[in-house]
Amino acid sequence: MPNNVETKGYTYSQLGDSHDESSSSHGLVPSSTQRRNFHYLWTVLTVINTLVLGTNLMLLWQRHSISNPQQQVEEPLAPFMSSIDRTLHKKTFNAFEYNVTKYTARTSDVGDEVEKNWVDLGIYGAPIVIPMDEVEYFDISSDHVRLDPQTNPTAPYAGVSGKIQAQHYLHCVNLLRQGLWYNRDYYRAQRHPSWNEAQDVLYGEYTLSEIHTAHCIDQLRQLIMCEADMSVVPFLEGKEGMSFLDFERPKQCRSWQSFLKWHRERAWEGGRISEERNIPGHEIPFFSWSGH
Questions:
Q1: For the chain, which has fewer Cβ within 10 Å, the N-terminal or C-terminal residue?
Q2: Please, what sign has the CA dihedral across residues 70, 71, 76, 80?
Q3: Are strands 235-237 and 243-245 parallel, antiparallel or unpaired?
Q4: What is the strand order of the sheet 4-7 is part of?
Q5: Neighbouring C-beta atoms of residue 187, cutoff 10 Å
């Protein structure tokens, strides 16, 4: 009797008698070829399942990150900035309103009040000093000015001075507000440091005020392009079939108030330029997200 039996393309070895301890209670056992085929199939299925599971986990993580933006990786802060609240909080932007806010009111209506509101936001804030042992957190080179209390008694400690970029951006927005056709003459008459006669000095083809304004426009343009905010502003149904954009949208934002508190504690008043010292805000600072 043959030792091997061929059935439907598979070859099986014949078992010994019932007294053979290596025998199975079933009639047939798979050959080595069939075992290799089963092993290959099992390996392929395992790899496919692993890939599917990994893909699902990645998609779940992405959805979690989008729906929970506070879980996303924060930018590293230097230790001397650690008290600033950098978590995200939901804020709702203003709708398109047929009105102005306390940050956009005309000078002809409110005079210096609108400028004081901007001053309270910290636009003329004094520089801060990065401690020397923390300059590694910033893009500091040997060309940047070092401070030393031994040579500059107003310096709080050895380090590198600088202005916070967010304050500079707000200064630029305010400069553009001041330069609007319905505000510019007011600030020229007031001899505001950004609009006095010193700003009429020519540098090549352009006055200093023109160069300053152009600089601010480019800074804000580059900021917007850098952030590339992908939020969607949908349309709303208006009267008479007219649609309008819904700007009253929520967004996750940092705490400006937390930053201002930190800045007031860290500001190096000795580094403030004299012109900015003479631009007052309110005795009790005004702050409003909406401006109302």
A1: N
A2: positive
A3: antiparallel
A4: 4-7, 10-14, 28-30
A5: 19
Of the listed ranges 23-32, 108-117, 129-138, the one predicted with least confidence: 23-32
**Alpha-carbon gap, residue 120 to 181, rounded angstroms:** 24
Q: Is residue 99's pLDDT more than 60?
A: yes
Q: Where are the alpha helices (DSSP H) in the chain?
A: 32-67, 107-110, 113-120, 165-178, 184-189, 208-227, 256-266, 274-277
Lowest mean pLDDT among 20-24, 84-88, 211-215, 272-276: 20-24
| Lowest-pLDDT range of 53-67, 86-100, 104-118, 178-192 | 53-67
Tracing tokens 């979690």 back to the chain, one arrives at 64
Q: To 5 degrees, how large is the angle CA 156–CA 159–CA 163?
A: 85
pLDDT at 21: 44
For the stretch 120-142, pLDDT in tens is 999 999 999 999 999 999 999 99
- The DSSP code sequence of 224-265 is HHHH-------EEE-GGG-EEE----EEEE--HHHHHHHHHH
Residue with tokens 């209390």: 149
